[in-house]
Amino acid sequence: MRKKLYINGKWQGEEHDQFDVVNPATKQVIAAVSNGGKNEAEQAVEAAHTAFEMWSGFTAQERSGFLAKWHQLIEENKEEIGKIMTMEQGKPLKEAIGEVGYANGFISWYAEEAKRIYGDTIPASQTNKRIFVQKQPVGVVSAITPWNFPAAMITRKVAPALAAGCTAVIKSAEETPLTALKLAELAEEAGIPAGVVNVITGKPKEIGDAWLQDDRVRKITFTGSTEVGKQLMKGAAETVKKVSLELGGHAPFIVMEDADLDKAVEQLIGSKFRNSGQTCICTNRVYVQATILEAFSEKFKAAVAELKTGNGLEENVDLGPLINDQAIEKVQSHLDDATAKGGEVSIGGNSFVKNGGQYFEPTIITGATDDMLCMNEETFGPVAPIASFETEEEVIQRANNSPYGLAAYVFSENIGRAVRVSEALEYGIVGVNDGLPSVPQAPFGGMKESGIGREGGHHGIEEYLEVKYISLGV
Ligand SMILES: NC(=O)C1=CN([C@@H]2O[C@H](COP(=O)(O)OP(=O)(O)OC[C@H]3O[C@@H](n4cnc5c(N)ncnc54)[C@H](O)[C@@H]3O)[C@@H](O)[C@H]2O)C=CC1
Ligand SMILES: O=C(O)[C@H](O)CS(=O)(=O)O
């Protein structure tokens, strides 16, 4: 495993200044990694700025070729990358390898998208003029990524950036640097030139502030908490950087009386318990129409009872540990608040320690009411509060009553109702009879305080391009 920082094609870092990477399933140190700060952040920008003219000067086909080679090497190493990810983040190995495939999907998508950055010609209003529209790379991009998807949140930013002709400075989360450094190693092996991709980790605020203050950095792209996203957005204003923010979510999962209950239960299991509930598009609140509340709740409870919690390296584990003790405390606080306000735990409800790892049982709370913390704040853990509703109009109003607008889900076999409700939901991503909508070809992103911009699909590359028009006198 690489433990030094990757700057300008060199692996560097002081032996005396490192931080420990801990396996959340055992609390054991798995590596000591260079603890980057202001100096390394500045060196990375210098490298990316210097490499920009060369990289943006390649043809689209040439950049596409580099991305395709990187994709091939990641594919060849996906089991190893998955194991590194499970050891530093905790998700079950099968899910980690699945994430590597999802992450690699952005690289293959943008290897092709690089060749389709089209311009326009616009009819001039004077016979002696011609108007041409071009799209050009924004320049040096800084990417700051979270621990919950250590591979996908990097490639979802860096693949379109490189495809567009930008160069990148990347700060991984301090919880999960090893996956990021492995991706850097494979980028180096793919022949992506020095300075194009730079990966550091360490002191978040020092690194972030250095990039915010540097006017050579033309874009900030961030995935993480809404709180930090707001800080970065404010800091970006100083030099008017472009900003892409994928922030917190609070997904409602709506089950109408005409839903296929078995399908809804199966999809809710996926949406709620993927990554032990630590994803920004996880279901955070479940609304079930009153007429089917009992039938649905029984089916859902039976399915939850089948889930296995444990070390992600073990066979047949569905939920790994939570990332740290603070995560456990937050989930516990939401559970305690819910039961204090009349909610009842129908299954689960306990955290426990196993071989040093901190786990939270997959949990269902019945009798949830809209005044509970779990119905308003991002839980980021395996707790599903169920509330009932009477009418379509009521549930739309309650689902939209949130500062978040990232993902929402509605289950109904009535196509008219499914269209009406999905169009009325104020969310950037709506799963209709689908609890796992994330794919590289679709524009992922949120409304309201869930973020700005989109990642994935042809929308995702626009975030790394400037639009210029040339007015030509003839
Ligand atoms: N929307 C999403 O996908 C995610 C949302 N979250 C939410 O955020 C909460 C906290 O989780 P964290 O991992 O601590 O998220 P966070 O937002 O604190 O960290 C995300 C990234 O931002 C970096 N960061 C933090 N403060 C920074 C600063 N001042 N300048 C520059 N970079 C900075 C971190 O080092 C990490 O790389 C979670 O409980 C969850 O609610 C967390 C991860 C992903
Ligand atoms: O940050 C997250 O939680 C991810 O964006 C969710 S997904 O894209 O992996 O579904």
From TrEMBL:
GO biological process, one term: aldehyde metabolic process
UniProt xrefs under PROSITE patterns: ALDEHYDE_DEHYDR_CYS (PS00070)
The UniProt record lists the keyword DNA-binding: no
Catalytic machinery residues: 246, 280
Signal peptide limits: none
Family statement drawn from the similarity comment of this UniProt entry: Belongs to the aldehyde dehydrogenase family.
NCBIfam families documented for this protein: SSADH (TIGR01780)
PANTHER family to which the protein is assigned, alphabetical: SUCCINATE-SEMIALDEHYDE DEHYDROGENASE, MITOCHONDRIAL
Protein name stated in the entry: Aldehyde dehydrogenase
Source organism (scientific name): Natribacillus halophilus
